[in-house]
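Page 47, continued from p. 46.
Same chain as before, 399 aa.
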Amino acid sequence: MAVATDTFTEKTDEQQAITEMVHQFADNEIIPVAEEYDHEDKFPEPIVEQMKELGLFGVTIPEEYGGMGLDLTTYAMIVEELSRGWISISGVVNTHFIGSYLLMKFGTDEQKDKYLPKMATGEIRAAFSLSEPEVGSDVQGIKSTAKETGDGQWEINGQKMWVTNGLLSGLVFVLVKTDTKADPPYKGMTCFICEKEPGVDKVPGLTIPPKIKKMGYKGVESTELVFDGFKVDEDHILGGPEGLGQGFVQMMDALEVGRVNVAARGVGVAQRAMELALRYSQERKTFGKPIAQHQAITFKLAEMGTRLEAARLLTLKAARMKDAGERSDLEAGMAKLFASEAAHANAEEALRIHGGYGYSKEYEIERIYRDAPLLLIGEGTSEIQKMVIGRKLLERNKA
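Result:
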């Protein structure tokens, strides 16, 4: 058997340097204050400002627009480290990443020139909006509409729900129906780039109600967007005139990379839960020895570690396939499903290992236990992922 002489490494030198920097940033600037921001449900503005200085809002944006021009794999590694610190911090960049991806892949040259430079610096941050009060997984069932007014503008009406960064973003990529009679419905859906004033909850045609109160995932706001005669110029259609009726396809493409992003968040949460479980199980003693030496705890740690490594490998494979230009919808779905479930399972096992202290707000695992379930729901529930995975497997392996 041939023996490789090169040292095994999962990361390039550049990736290693970047992730070490973000890891240290999480240790020094995020973890020590996460409990405070979570408790007060307060937006972590000082952390976000530091992220701007580090260039983390422009990781995947091309250098010609002022970004780093890095690939999806490196971005996923960065997201893992941020989520390890606090999942809400990765939420601040998640929707921004989706918005920049939509612009880079589908935007006109004018749209790219107008928005990407400011997005790369974090001067403006983006959100995207699909869900509605009565519509989640069934995207084709959205009711929000946009109609031409005859003067080069479109008027948007409808209600959107669960919009992360809905209040503090400067751009919102909104999916609406421009042809309510289209058959199938997705052919009548268009994505509009809506500009708004960050932090302002009422402008002509748009009202943003108070943020939704949540069990976890605090600090970053989740809001409704109520459109009532909101006017946008026709050049705000993503992709220009050719983008009319292409919104569903555009958003589904973006969600494919978004699932890699969510998977990376799951890996980060699973990693932090593992770290806390390892530390506590070696410090806490029962019956004269650390609980880590009890077989019941050892088995839990073994399962947690295995889940973590499997989730990370699935995520990196999906990201690397996308970077290579290969179809990765199946792999992204698998990564999202497994990593989100791994995060939830590791959080629960870590809480069990902490015993009664895990139920106390004095211990970090209590927050992680509340944060983890978000990943089971956001950007495609586990049940939806299973449906997609099963369908894709059958498509790729027709008898």
